[in-house]
């Protein structure tokens, strides 16, 4: 079993990266293989709408090819994004758009995989839910199973605010998210 975490922050050592690593550490402690991709380290260009992907390849030659291979190999996917204007970061949205390759030929390669989201914002009600819903829409469009953090918080995923390492409530939503994702992955 393998869980892939993708960090959509432009800051490779910021709050969002911290929280994603926190989640991936929890998966590793449970015996799950993990991989972490920091989009801040990648050169990924926006989709140009050429539809070459319907033939199974992308016309753009950049770092997205490696991300696609990692997406193909994972069983579970955790997307982590800071909240920018109430939604996922631009880096995350570009990655989402480019991964249309995994479904554009009519074969939904992500079908049956489990997806979960993490959103980090400056305030408790700083747009995390809408950002998480952006991620849920992505998972559903890839025909994936979607997991939220569940009780007692029951957000659309893990929601953090302020300095993530000090947000005990937010980190508890991450722990819930990992536990619920593990339960779904064990049923696959």
Task: Please explain how this structure is put together.
This protein is of the alpha/beta class. The protein has one domain: Flavodoxin domain (Rossmann fold, 3-Layer(aba) Sandwich). 36% of the residues lie in helices and 18% in strands. It is built from five helices and six strands. The chain has helices at 15-29, 64-73, 90-98, 128-141, 168-186; strands spanning 2-7, 33-38, 76-82, 114-121, 145-147, 158-161. Strands 1, 2, 3, 4, 5 and 6 form a six-stranded parallel beta sheet that branches. Helix 1 links the parallel strand 1 (2-7) and strand 2. Helix 1 (15-29) packs across helix 5 (168-186). The longest helix is centred in the C-terminal third of the chain and has 19 residues, at 168-186. The termini are close together. The mean pLDDT is 95.
Shape: globular
Secondary structural class: alpha/beta
Tell me the name of the CATH homologous superfamily: Flavodoxin domain
Mean pLDDT: 95
Radius of gyration: 15 Å
> Topology as H/E string?
EHEHEHEHEEH
Report the sheet with the most strands, covering strand number, pairing sense and barrel closure: 6 strands, parallel
Number of strands: 6
User: What is the CATH level 1 assignment?
Assistant: Alpha Beta
Poorly predicted sequence stretches spanning 5 or more consecutive residues: none
Measured between the Cα atoms of the first and last residue, the distance is 10 Å
| DSSP helical segment count | 5
**Fraction of residues in helix:** 25-40%
As for the CATH topology, it is Rossmann fold
Overall domain count: 1
CATH architecture: 3-Layer(aba) Sandwich
Strand residues, percent: 15-25%
């Amino acid at each position: 079993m393998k869980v892939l975490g993708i960090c959509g922050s432009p800051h490779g050592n910021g709050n969002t990266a911290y929280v994603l690593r926190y989640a991936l550490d929890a998966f590793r402690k449970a015996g799950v293989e993990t991989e972490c991709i920091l989009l801040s380290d990648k050169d990924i260009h926006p989709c140009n709408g050429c539809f070459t992907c319907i033939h199974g390849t992308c016309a753009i030659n950049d770092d997205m090819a490696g991300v696609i291979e990692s997406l193909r190999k994972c069983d579970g996917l955790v997307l982590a994004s800071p909240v920018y204007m109430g939604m996922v970061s631009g880096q995350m949205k570009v990655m989402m758009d480019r991964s249309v390759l995994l479904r554009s030929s009519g074969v939904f390669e992500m079908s049956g995989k489990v997806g979960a989201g993490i959103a980090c914002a400056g305030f408790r009600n700083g747009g995390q839910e809408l950002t998480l819903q952006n991620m849920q829409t992505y998972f559903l469009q890839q025909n994936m199973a979607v997991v939220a953090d569940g009780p007692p918080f029951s957000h659309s995923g893990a929601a953090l605010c302020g300095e993530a390492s000090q947000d005990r409530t937010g980190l508890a939503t991450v722990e819930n998210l990992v536990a619920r994702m593990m339960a779904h992955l064990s049923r696959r």
